[in-house]
Amino acid sequence: MFRKLDWYTIRTFIGPFIFIFSILFFIFIVQFAWQEMEKFAGKGLSWITITELLLYLGINVIQLVLPLSVLLGSIMTFGGFGERYELAAMKASGISLARIFLPMFTLVLLMSIGLYFFGDHVMPYSQRKAQNLSYNIVKANPTLQFTEGVFIEGIPGFSMKISEISGEESDQLTDVFIYQGGGYDDDKRTIIAKSGTLNRDKEDFRLMKMVLFDGYIYGDDIKGKSNIERRNQPNQTIQFDTLVQFIDISEIIQKAMDEENIQDHYKFLNAKKLKKRIDSLDAENINYYRNIYNNSLVNNVHGAKNFDSIKEVSSNITFKPIDEIENDLQVQIVKEALINIDREIQSYSWQAEEMYGRTKFIARQKVHYHRNYAYAFTCIVFFLIGAPLGAIVKKGGIGMPVIISIIIFVFYYIINFSTENMTKNGILDPTFAAWSANLIFFPIALILLYKANNDSALFTLNNYLDPIIKYLSKFRPKKNNEHSRYQ
Prior knowledge:
Blueprint: H1 2-37, H2 47-58, H3 62-83, H4 86-92, H5 97-140, E1 158-166, E2 172-181, E3 188-200, E4 207-220, H6 227-232, E5 236-248, H7 250-260, H8 271-300, H9 327-393, H10 400-424, H11 430-453, H12 462-472
Antiparallel strand pairs: 1-2, 2-3, 3-4, 4-5
Helix pairs in contact: 1-2, 1-3, 1-5, 2-5, 3-5, 3-9, 3-10, 5-7, 5-9, 8-9, 9-10, 9-11, 10-11
């Protein structure tokens, strides 16, 4: 009997679970694609390439979709059991609630283990493929880096702003502003044009050919000239109908090729390799902070390292009070002291920025390391919340379960990502941040299990108001029931 009942429970859960997972995955992936689509759509890329890139980037939504599907599916399953009085029949036959939950709990446990291995193996692979595909796209079409109405600084030696980019291959430009300048002693040029085109050069793939129409060139020939000559030279303006400008993008291509071969980014590593890297970073940071401590002690206390070896101090140096020193020398001493103080403040500011950067860098990796374990455990927590809730609410279908699931998931999502962002800013401990949502919801799951096992009416308002009213009634003044003629 138990085997038939177990398989019946699992079959009842599998159907809604697959349906819910499919719907939620489609909703999440569409939402993600909608946010990222504007970066790639209409820029000459095939839809196959765009779909492949979005799939690699968005596949991580499974870590959120699976726990939510478990939550909603378990509420629907046991809510349906309660609504059809099947749960009451199971209990009446002497089967405990824990035994009823066991087959589904085993299935969810296997899903949890699978989700961990998915995050440990599939996710690094998809992130690496997405990164490499992105760099290949940029290498094939660097104009994808251009954003309308924003100054573009990615091309060495150029700063440009394009009001509108159009055309099937994103090669039609409108209202172009270009500032071309190298070092301090190099000539400068400013180009303004009403329209133009931008394409890869057919003869040399390292060059981009920009053809501009109807514009002006403002030049500053300052190379090899003194400051007086630069100030006295006349303004140089050239009007043109058509201007051909070649832009060297070899550095961009080389960077893309170099970054394409990056294999040690923390998102590309599994748990074992990432843990090894985190331990290495921790050891490196310990040495870094120890060196800062030693250097600060030596720089601020003369002879600090030799304090233990000093037994006796003798000196013939005499110090004059500052009032007895000449005014010019006093000013010089004060200036040198202020300079030293500014230098120390600047040094400490740099060290603080370096420490803050190191803290954020390692915190992101620690959160990523613990997140795979935390998301896997979330499946178990959500089942322990959803199954008792369904047994208590006794409502199947997609009405009440959906509302309850959305409320729980919203709170989980807010807690989870708020703490992770706080950790990335160096405010919270990474381990606590990754597990904080589970630490909050796991006690709630235990309370719901207790309530469901004891058939408590969780959503009966009087169960919560009556004890409060009874307690407050102690402080009310007692009424005098004697007749007024006896007073």
